[in-house]
Specification:
Number of strands: 2
Structural class: mainly alpha
Distance between the termini: 24 Å
Amino acid sequence: IDLRLGAVFTRFQTLRFQNKFEGVEKLVSYGPCQFPTLGFVVERFLARESFIKEAFWKISVTHKPTEQDPVAHFNWNRRRLFCEFSTLIMFELCLENPVATVSNVNSRETRKYRPFPLDTVEFQKRAARFL
């Protein structure tokens, strides 16, 4: 049914738009998968258009005991600060007292599995269930 509906509506659209608008010489395609995809594209476009840049600052802490040792990068949960004054105060505190204490070490094994193929039917099921 989807294939027949798509073929019929594609033909209808193409003939209608070719007669109504100049410059439409190619096929104007329709398919049940195109509407959700178009929705994703439009949603992403609107998100990008409404994005407002905001200045931020961050403090990067590294340690390298000797030239032969690798560099250790230390991260913190906040990652970014949006107040320059607060960042400057924290940076000066780090410079005044360069000794640090490691309070927690997290390590875990990570695996990256191959993605499952996502066919149209499964995609529609998941979209209906989770969206």
